[in-house]
Amino acid sequence: MAFRPSITLTLVYLAAFFLVFALALVLPALWPLLGSAATGPEIQALAQETARTVVRPRLGLAFGLAVLATALGGWLHLLPGMPKARG
Could you tell me the residue ranges of all domains in the chain? Predict the structure, then answer.
């Protein structure tokens, strides 16, 4: 019997999808700040506060979308390395 890290790989996919969806939720709010020519600690503090206020209420949505994407990707065999269903 070979070692098959299916649980570890599932958690890696879940974390990656969570980061992608959280970034997708915060990027529209940060886009005007990214395009500005101003730099420095004031812009960094403003960007951090904007990211916190936008992401905090949507963390559940990002996590739910990550779980859904991981489950669908595993069920449809779209994610490399995920175990095949027995049967």
Answer: 9-75
